[in-house]
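Fold this complex.
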Amino acid sequence: MGEHELDGELVQRAKAGDKSAFDLLVRKYQHRIAAVVSRFVRDYGDCQDVVQDSFIRAYKSLPGFRGDSQFYTWMYRIAVNTAKNHLAGKKRRPSSDVELEDAEFIDGGIYVQNNDTPEHELLREEIAKVVGRALDQLPDEIRQAITLREMEGLSYEEIADVMNSPVGTVRSRIFRAREAIDARLRPLYEQQRVRP
Amino acid sequence: MKPINDNDLEQLSAYIDGELSDSERRFFQKRLANDEALRACCERAWIASSVLKSQPFQLMPADSAERICAQCDAPSVRFRQPLRLVASFGALALVAALGYQLLLPSDTAPPTLAQQSEARPAAVAAEPGPRVAKTGKPAAAAVSVTGSGIRESAGPVQDTDLRVADGNDPSQFELNESTRAKSWPKSGQDMGDYVVRHNEMIGANANSGLVSYAQILAEPEQDPSTPAGQDKELDTQ
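Structure:
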């Protein structure tokens, strides 16, 4: 089962009324959706409201989601429409001209210009630096395993083939990499938690 | 809630990669559903994943997922407001209808549909308010504006006709000299009854040569300084 199939399963469970499944989908995608919304809505508080509204709308529309597109792409559309409605309500134009077609472009991993506040830009840069430093300090085999998984999108079996290691070892190496990254990321994340 | 150990974290790592077997995944999902710390750990792993994939992200507050999920079950304010509005209008309409019934004399039979449709042009003529507001012209000009409106709307009754026929207060009229000398009914209700009776009479005797109330108002003394067709122009502004 791949990552998208896992999303599909979470969607099916959420449709069946499993709130914890929807909670996981929110946790997985809210930060990326917030990045999309922030291109339309400059104010951070408004941006959070729009993200929240988008997920609530998505939850209420889940029965109509047939799964023809990926959950993230569907969610992206809802977020863009919600952001545009928000701006229309305030009679403002979008702060950039990001359109629905950009979903795949953004998924492709290319940063587009961001209208974030310096504070949030700094925090994001800090997170990127922390993760980058953690990655650099990993032993070679562990770094290679997580790189093949996250950047190349290979399955555990494919990584095992590339690295000539058992799948169990690959699984363990990827876990070790994530554990090391999380140990550095957690303080920053918890600092964000206490931020007003 | 059990403390998170290495085994949990390894399972979590495999879970987010979709690499758990079906039974492992079902078991782990149950743990996730009941373990806030494990879910937070999962969220951080997704953030790290976004960073590694160079995907843009903006950090949401740590408790935002809980707030969103709590809001999902709450009735939407957006849906409640229109319902409240509809209910208010419904109550208002009910009160108005009851008030109207109470004001009607008890021996007055309700008018037939034909009578109602005949009475409508007169009712339109009796309410120049909206058109005055629309054109922004002084009240003195309203009669002629309203008059041409009647002329044009003669025929099947339109929704717009019903819209302007709501009120019926003759005190708002600025009458021309030929009509000012007449004695008019004293109350709004009497005025309404008078108009209905008048139209009934004309409807029953189409060839009697009598002029309907609507026509009287539709053809006031023409101001020579007003070019022909200006009424129509004002009406469409």
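Chain B touches chain A through 50 residues (CB under 8 Å).
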